Amino acid sequence: MAKKIVAANWKMNLLRKEAISLFNGLSKSLLDHKGAEVVVFPPSIYLADLLQVTNTGIHVGAQNFYFEEKGAYTGEVSATQLKDLGCSYALVGHSERRMIFGESNELLFKKIKSGIEAGLHIVYCCGESLEQRELGNEKTIILEQIEVLRPLSTEELNKISIAYEPIWAIGTGVTASSSQAEEMHAFIRGVLVDLFSESISDYISILYGGSCNENNAEELFSCQNIDGGLIGGASLKQNAFLQIVEFSK
Ligand code: PGA
Protein backbone atom coordinates (compact mmCIF):
# COMPACT_ATOMS: atom_id res chain seq x y z
CA MET A 1 0.00 0.00 0.00
CA ALA A 2 1.25 3.46 -0.88
CA LYS A 3 1.95 5.77 2.02
CA LYS A 4 -0.43 8.71 2.51
CA ILE A 5 1.34 12.06 2.23
CA VAL A 6 -0.01 15.58 2.60
CA ALA A 7 2.50 18.25 1.58
CA ALA A 8 2.44 22.03 1.79
CA ASN A 9 4.07 23.89 -1.09
CA TRP A 10 4.48 27.42 0.24
CA LYS A 11 6.11 28.56 -3.02
CA MET A 12 7.58 32.10 -2.79
CA ASN A 13 5.27 33.23 0.00
CA LEU A 14 5.51 34.36 3.64
CA LEU A 15 8.05 36.50 5.45
CA ARG A 16 10.37 34.81 7.93
CA LYS A 17 8.31 35.46 11.06
CA GLU A 18 5.14 34.32 9.33
CA ALA A 19 6.81 31.14 8.10
CA ILE A 20 8.15 30.25 11.53
CA SER A 21 4.85 31.02 13.20
CA LEU A 22 2.84 28.94 10.72
CA PHE A 23 5.28 26.04 11.09
CA ASN A 24 5.18 26.23 14.88
CA GLY A 25 1.38 26.25 14.80
CA LEU A 26 1.28 23.21 12.53
CA SER A 27 3.89 21.42 14.62
CA LYS A 28 1.91 21.90 17.80
CA SER A 29 -1.29 20.61 16.25
CA LEU A 30 0.31 17.68 14.46
CA LEU A 31 2.66 16.49 17.19
CA ASP A 32 0.77 13.30 18.03
CA HIS A 33 -0.97 13.09 14.75
CA LYS A 34 -1.37 9.65 13.23
CA GLY A 35 -2.00 9.06 9.59
CA ALA A 36 -0.56 10.80 6.56
CA GLU A 37 3.07 11.90 6.52
CA VAL A 38 3.06 15.69 6.55
CA VAL A 39 5.73 17.62 4.66
CA VAL A 40 6.31 21.36 4.40
CA PHE A 41 8.20 22.85 1.45
CA PRO A 42 9.06 26.42 2.54
CA PRO A 43 11.08 28.99 0.59
CA SER A 44 14.66 27.74 0.89
CA ILE A 45 15.88 30.64 3.03
CA TYR A 46 13.62 29.43 5.86
CA LEU A 47 14.67 25.77 5.73
CA ALA A 48 17.26 26.15 8.50
CA ASP A 49 14.78 27.98 10.75
CA LEU A 50 12.13 25.29 10.37
CA LEU A 51 14.61 22.48 10.78
CA GLN A 52 15.54 23.88 14.17
CA VAL A 53 12.05 23.31 15.52
CA THR A 54 12.05 20.26 17.74
CA ASN A 55 8.93 18.36 18.73
CA THR A 56 7.43 18.41 15.32
CA GLY A 57 5.88 15.55 13.45
CA ILE A 58 6.47 17.36 10.19
CA HIS A 59 9.09 16.63 7.53
CA VAL A 60 10.78 19.56 5.86
CA GLY A 61 11.72 19.62 2.20
CA ALA A 62 13.13 21.86 -0.51
CA GLN A 63 11.17 23.23 -3.43
CA ASN A 64 14.21 23.13 -5.69
CA PHE A 65 17.91 22.27 -5.98
CA TYR A 66 20.60 21.80 -8.62
CA PHE A 67 21.85 18.38 -9.68
CA GLU A 68 25.59 18.98 -9.29
CA GLU A 69 26.99 18.18 -5.86
CA LYS A 70 29.13 21.32 -5.50
CA GLY A 71 31.09 23.87 -7.46
CA ALA A 72 30.77 27.10 -9.41
CA TYR A 73 26.97 27.31 -9.74
CA THR A 74 26.18 30.77 -8.40
CA GLY A 75 22.82 30.98 -6.72
CA GLU A 76 22.21 27.25 -6.52
CA VAL A 77 22.15 24.70 -3.70
CA SER A 78 22.77 20.97 -4.03
CA ALA A 79 20.81 18.00 -2.77
CA THR A 80 23.81 17.07 -0.62
CA GLN A 81 23.67 20.48 1.06
CA LEU A 82 19.94 20.10 1.68
CA LYS A 83 20.39 16.66 3.19
CA ASP A 84 23.24 17.95 5.32
CA LEU A 85 20.96 20.71 6.63
CA GLY A 86 18.38 18.11 7.67
CA CYS A 87 15.90 18.10 4.78
CA SER A 88 14.28 14.78 4.01
CA TYR A 89 12.20 15.67 0.95
CA ALA A 90 12.48 17.71 -2.27
CA LEU A 91 10.14 18.63 -5.08
CA VAL A 92 11.22 18.04 -8.67
CA GLY A 93 9.37 18.91 -11.86
CA HIS A 94 6.78 21.35 -10.57
CA SER A 95 5.02 22.94 -13.56
CA GLU A 96 6.21 26.37 -12.44
CA ARG A 97 9.82 25.12 -12.69
CA ARG A 98 9.10 23.49 -16.05
CA MET A 99 7.35 26.55 -17.52
CA ILE A 100 8.89 29.64 -15.90
CA PHE A 101 12.41 28.27 -15.53
CA GLY A 102 12.40 26.08 -18.63
CA GLU A 103 13.32 22.83 -16.86
CA SER A 104 13.30 19.90 -19.29
CA ASN A 105 12.60 16.23 -18.62
CA GLU A 106 16.32 15.62 -19.19
CA LEU A 107 17.33 18.10 -16.48
CA LEU A 108 14.63 16.78 -14.14
CA PHE A 109 16.01 13.26 -14.43
CA LYS A 110 19.44 14.52 -13.34
CA LYS A 111 17.83 16.26 -10.37
CA ILE A 112 15.91 13.12 -9.39
CA LYS A 113 19.08 11.01 -9.56
CA SER A 114 21.17 13.41 -7.51
CA GLY A 115 18.37 13.98 -4.99
CA ILE A 116 17.95 10.26 -4.37
CA GLU A 117 21.70 9.75 -4.23
CA ALA A 118 21.92 12.43 -1.54
CA GLY A 119 19.24 10.61 0.46
CA LEU A 120 16.22 12.81 -0.22
CA HIS A 121 12.72 11.53 -0.93
CA ILE A 122 11.60 13.09 -4.21
CA VAL A 123 8.07 14.24 -4.98
CA TYR A 124 8.09 14.26 -8.78
CA CYS A 125 5.37 16.49 -10.26
CA CYS A 126 3.61 16.01 -13.54
CA GLY A 127 0.60 17.60 -15.17
CA GLU A 128 -0.90 18.73 -18.45
CA SER A 129 -1.90 22.23 -19.56
CA LEU A 130 -5.45 23.24 -20.42
CA GLU A 131 -4.55 23.33 -24.09
CA GLN A 132 -3.12 19.82 -23.97
CA ARG A 133 -6.26 18.58 -22.21
CA GLU A 134 -8.56 20.29 -24.69
CA LEU A 135 -6.70 18.58 -27.51
CA GLY A 136 -7.19 15.25 -25.71
CA ASN A 137 -3.44 14.87 -25.15
CA GLU A 138 -3.36 14.76 -21.35
CA LYS A 139 -2.44 11.09 -21.12
CA THR A 140 0.31 11.33 -23.75
CA ILE A 141 1.87 14.23 -21.84
CA ILE A 142 1.68 12.47 -18.49
CA LEU A 143 3.12 9.29 -20.01
CA GLU A 144 6.06 11.30 -21.38
CA GLN A 145 6.65 12.90 -17.98
CA ILE A 146 6.40 9.64 -16.03
CA GLU A 147 8.71 7.87 -18.48
CA VAL A 148 11.48 10.07 -17.08
CA LEU A 149 11.51 7.60 -14.15
CA ARG A 150 12.15 4.57 -16.38
CA PRO A 151 15.92 4.19 -15.71
CA LEU A 152 15.47 4.17 -11.92
CA SER A 153 16.17 0.97 -9.98
CA THR A 154 13.66 -0.59 -7.59
CA GLU A 155 15.66 0.80 -4.71
CA GLU A 156 15.61 4.30 -6.20
CA LEU A 157 11.88 4.08 -6.85
CA ASN A 158 11.43 3.57 -3.12
CA LYS A 159 12.44 7.20 -2.75
CA ILE A 160 9.89 8.54 -5.24
CA SER A 161 6.35 9.82 -4.92
CA ILE A 162 4.42 11.40 -7.75
CA ALA A 163 2.21 14.49 -7.63
CA TYR A 164 -0.34 14.80 -10.42
CA GLU A 165 -1.02 18.51 -10.80
CA PRO A 166 -3.05 19.57 -13.84
CA ILE A 167 -1.66 23.01 -14.70
CA TRP A 168 -5.13 24.41 -15.35
CA ALA A 169 -6.05 23.65 -11.74
CA ILE A 170 -2.98 25.21 -10.07
CA GLY A 171 -3.79 28.43 -8.26
CA THR A 172 -6.91 28.91 -10.36
CA GLY A 173 -9.58 27.77 -7.92
CA VAL A 174 -10.67 25.25 -10.57
CA THR A 175 -10.03 21.81 -9.10
CA ALA A 176 -10.09 18.68 -11.17
CA SER A 177 -13.29 16.85 -10.27
CA SER A 178 -12.65 13.75 -8.22
CA SER A 179 -13.51 11.59 -11.22
CA GLN A 180 -11.12 13.53 -13.51
CA ALA A 181 -8.38 13.25 -10.89
CA GLU A 182 -9.03 9.57 -10.17
CA GLU A 183 -9.00 8.77 -13.90
CA MET A 184 -5.53 10.34 -14.24
CA HIS A 185 -4.23 8.74 -11.05
CA ALA A 186 -5.42 5.33 -12.21
CA PHE A 187 -3.74 6.01 -15.55
CA ILE A 188 -0.46 6.87 -13.79
CA ARG A 189 -0.74 3.72 -11.68
CA GLY A 190 -1.14 1.72 -14.90
CA VAL A 191 1.89 3.42 -16.48
CA LEU A 192 3.93 2.46 -13.40
CA VAL A 193 2.79 -1.18 -13.78
CA ASP A 194 3.88 -1.13 -17.44
CA LEU A 195 7.21 0.55 -16.73
CA PHE A 196 8.06 -1.42 -13.59
CA SER A 197 5.74 -3.89 -11.88
CA GLU A 198 2.49 -4.14 -10.02
CA SER A 199 4.17 -4.15 -6.62
CA ILE A 200 6.25 -1.07 -7.43
CA SER A 201 3.16 0.69 -8.76
CA ASP A 202 1.30 -0.18 -5.56
CA TYR A 203 3.80 1.39 -3.22
CA ILE A 204 4.46 4.66 -5.08
CA SER A 205 2.28 7.37 -3.53
CA ILE A 206 0.40 9.48 -6.07
CA LEU A 207 -0.67 12.85 -4.67
CA TYR A 208 -3.16 15.23 -6.21
CA GLY A 209 -2.38 18.94 -6.49
CA GLY A 210 -4.21 21.91 -7.99
CA SER A 211 -6.63 24.03 -5.97
CA CYS A 212 -7.00 21.25 -3.43
CA ASN A 213 -8.49 22.80 -0.30
CA GLU A 214 -10.46 22.09 2.86
CA ASN A 215 -13.70 21.91 0.88
CA ASN A 216 -12.71 19.37 -1.74
CA ALA A 217 -9.92 17.34 -0.09
CA GLU A 218 -12.26 14.85 1.56
CA GLU A 219 -13.80 13.80 -1.73
CA LEU A 220 -10.49 13.77 -3.58
CA PHE A 221 -8.75 11.74 -0.87
CA SER A 222 -11.54 9.17 -0.85
CA CYS A 223 -10.60 8.11 -4.40
CA GLN A 224 -8.87 4.75 -4.67
CA ASN A 225 -5.70 5.97 -6.37
CA ILE A 226 -5.27 9.32 -4.61
CA ASP A 227 -2.77 8.93 -1.79
CA GLY A 228 -2.81 12.49 -0.48
CA GLY A 229 -2.16 15.97 -1.78
CA LEU A 230 0.34 18.66 -2.66
CA ILE A 231 -1.29 21.82 -1.42
CA GLY A 232 -0.34 25.34 -2.52
CA GLY A 233 -2.62 28.26 -1.61
CA ALA A 234 -4.61 26.44 1.08
CA SER A 235 -1.41 25.38 2.85
CA LEU A 236 -0.71 29.00 3.79
CA LYS A 237 -3.73 28.97 6.11
CA GLN A 238 -3.15 26.92 9.24
CA ASN A 239 -6.72 25.76 9.83
CA ALA A 240 -7.38 24.95 6.20
CA PHE A 241 -4.21 22.88 5.97
CA LEU A 242 -4.90 21.05 9.24
CA GLN A 243 -8.37 20.23 8.01
CA ILE A 244 -6.90 18.81 4.78
CA VAL A 245 -4.46 16.68 6.80
CA GLU A 246 -7.39 15.43 8.86
CA PHE A 247 -9.17 14.25 5.68
CA SER A 248 -6.17 12.16 4.69
CA LYS A 249 -6.67 9.69 7.54
P1 PGA B 1 -2.51 25.34 -5.49
O1 PGA B 1 -1.00 24.88 -5.88
O2 PGA B 1 -2.97 24.42 -4.40
O3 PGA B 1 -2.38 26.76 -5.05
O4 PGA B 1 -3.31 25.19 -6.73
C1 PGA B 1 -0.61 23.55 -5.86
C2 PGA B 1 0.80 23.41 -6.34
O5 PGA B 1 1.19 24.14 -7.27
O6 PGA B 1 1.60 22.61 -5.81
Structure in a nutshell:
The protein has helices at residues 16-30, 47-51, 79-85, 95-100, 105-118, 130-134, 138-146, 154-157, 178-195, 198-203, 217-221, 238-247, and strands spanning 5-9, 37-41, 58-62, 89-92, 121-126, 160-164, 206-209, 228-231. The protein has twelve helices and eight strands.
Explained architecture:
It is a single chain. The longest helix has 18 residues, at 178-195. The protein has an eight-stranded parallel beta barrel with strand order 1-2-3-4-5-6-7-8, surrounded by five helices. By secondary structure, the protein is of the alpha/beta class. The protein has helices at residues 16-30, 47-51, 79-85, 95-100, 105-118, 130-134, 138-146, 154-157, 178-195, 198-203, 217-221, 238-247, and strands at 5-9, 37-41, 58-62, 89-92, 121-126, 160-164, 206-209, 228-231. It has a single domain, classed as Aldolase class I (TIM Barrel), CATH 3.20.20.70. The two termini are 14 Å apart. Helix 7 (138-146) packs across helix 9. The structure holds 2-phosphoglycolic acid (PGA). Residues 9, 165, 170-171, 209-212, 230-234 line the site of 2-phosphoglycolic acid (PGA).
Instruction: Provide the CATH architecture.
Output: Alpha-Beta Barrel
User: What's the structural domain tally?
Assistant: 1
Bound compounds, please? 2-phosphoglycolic acid
CATH classification class: Alpha Beta
